[in-house]
Structures are given as structure tokens and as C-alpha cells.
């Protein structure tokens, strides 16, 4: 439990997978956490954070960014096209690009703003109706479409179904990424980041194992 413990476990998982620990970025998911917990983790030196709601992130991160140098902010939750501008101004990386309409909105805004966050395409590997993400069968086409729009696609992201073995989903995501020449793999959370690292994760998104259980709202 806690940042130091998670970093140690990431290093160990990298060693076992014969990987360089520098090839795995820990994204500390700070959604819903009390501000003092987030501040404590900032004070411990963590600089890469993730949030799942644009509005919530806009409420706390401008202040933290002003007080702590070098913060990198990742959006890991679903993004509505009408919030794309605000998201692009606030976040350095967006993990949840999952449909043509959103990709087109981001492309238009990138032209206008003259910059674009790094992007991950979310794949609904479990083909769950309630979950965001492009279906695996549509992933190759959508990746090509994003590239045709000149979007900086760095990799793929998935959230496996809770009741299934995550490794199968991590392996599928890795396969889709490999055949499309993508390096980035955003996969693995508190309960399964070590398995994700074994299967090539470059970004693990860990929340409760760092900050403690989220306070229910
Ligand atoms: C909340 C969240 C996480 C972190 O979940 P934990 O189980 O607390 O580690 C990771 N990814 C996404 C997309 C999330 O919404």
C-alpha cells in the first residue's frame, strides 16, 4: 500500500519480465481522493496523475500545477466531444479516444490550438455494452482513421471486464497494438498491474493501491 510499495512492485514485475523499469510509467489515479492525500503523493515526488472526469480535474489541478513543477496529467475516463477543448487544454495525455466523432473533434481543435495531447485509443476488449471503447473488430480501421487525421496516437488502452481474467484482455490489446505498429499500452490497475507489465504495459493506472480506498460519493 502506498506509493513506495507500488513503485517497488513495478520494479519487481519489470525485473521478472526482463523489462527496463523506465519503460513503464506509473499513472497515479487521483479521482475522488481527498486533496490532502493527492498533495502527500505529490510531496513524495510522484508527477504523473490521472483523472476520469474533466470537470473534477479542472477543479483541482490548475492549483496543484501552479505549486508543483513538472506535473503531467492524464485523462483516463470517457470524453464527450463538447468537453474536448477543455480536456485538450488541461491534459497532457488522453487515454479514451474511442469513436470517429471524438477523433474528428480533437483533430479540428488540434489545428486551432496548434497542439494536441498524446492520445491512446480505448478498446472495449470485453465487448461490454455499457463500457466505452472501440470494438476489437473495428480497432484497425479506427486507428487508420485517426492516423489519417494526423492525430498523435501513441497506443491503446483497455479496462478488462471485472469478472474475467485480465491477462486475456491485456494479451488481446497487445496483439492489436503490435499489428498496428503502436508502442503504447495503457493497461493494468491496482489489482492487476503486475500481470499487465508481464504482457507489455507501458502505462499502468493505479488508484486505490496508492491513495487508499476511494471515498464513496
Ligand atoms: C479509477 C480508474 C483506475 C484506477 O483504479 P484502481 O482500481 O483504483 O487502481 C484506472 N483506470 C481507470 C480508467 C479508472 O477509471
Automatic annotation (TrEMBL):
Domain of life: Bacteria
Residues covered by the Alanine racemase N-terminal domain: 34-214
TM segment ranges: none
Keywords: Pyridoxal phosphate
A Pfam family annotated for this UniProt entry: Ala_racemase_N
Modified residues (N6-(pyridoxal phosphate)lysine): 31
Gene3D superfamilies registered for this protein in UniProt: Alanine racemase (3.20.20.10)
Function: Pyridoxal 5'-phosphate (PLP)-binding protein, which is involved in PLP homeostasis.
Family statement drawn from the similarity comment of this UniProt entry: Belongs to the pyridoxal phosphate-binding protein YggS/PROSC family.
Protein name per its UniProtKB record: Pyridoxal phosphate homeostasis protein
Species of the source: Ponticoccus alexandrii
Lineage, top ranks: Bacteria, Pseudomonadati, Pseudomonadota, Alphaproteobacteria, Rhodobacterales
Amino acid at each position: 500500500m502506498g506509493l513506495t510499495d507500488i513503485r517497488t512492485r513495478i520494479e519487481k514485475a519489470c525485473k521478472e519480465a526482463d523489462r527496463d523499469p523506465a519503460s513503464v510509467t506509473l499513472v497515479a489515479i487521483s479521482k475522488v481522493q481527498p486533496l490532502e492525500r493527492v498533495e502527500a503523493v505529490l510531496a513524495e515526488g510522484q508527477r504523473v496523475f490521472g483523472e476520469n472526469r474533466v470537470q473534477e480535474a479542472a477543479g483541482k489541478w490548475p492549483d496543484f500545477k501552479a505549486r508543483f513543477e513538472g506535473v503531467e496529467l492524464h485523462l483516463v475516463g470517457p470524453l464527450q466531444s463538447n468537453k474536448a477543448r477543455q480536456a485538450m487544454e488541461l491534459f497532457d495525455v488522453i487515454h479514451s479516444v474511442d469513436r470517429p466523432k471524438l477523433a474528428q473533434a480533437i483533430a479540428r481543435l488540434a489545428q486551432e490550438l496548434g497542439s494536441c495531447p498524446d492520445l491512446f485509443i480505448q478498446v472495449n476488449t470485453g465487448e461490454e455494452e455499457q463500457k466505452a471503447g472501440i470494438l476489437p473488430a473495428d480497432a484497425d480501421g479506427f486507428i487508420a482513421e485517426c492516423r489519417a487525421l494526423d492525430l498523435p496516437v501513441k497506443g491503446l488502452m483497455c479496462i478488462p471486464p471485472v469478472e474475467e481474467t485480465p491477462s486475456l484482455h491485456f494479451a488481446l490489446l497487445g496483439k492489436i497494438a503490435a499489428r498496428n505498429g503502436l508502442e503504447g499500452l495503457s493497461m493494468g490497475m491496482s489489482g492487476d498491474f503486475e500481470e499487465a507489465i508481464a504482457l507489455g504495459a507501458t502505462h499502468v493506472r493505479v488508484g486505490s493501491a496508492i491513495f487508499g480506498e476511494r471515498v464513496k460519493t
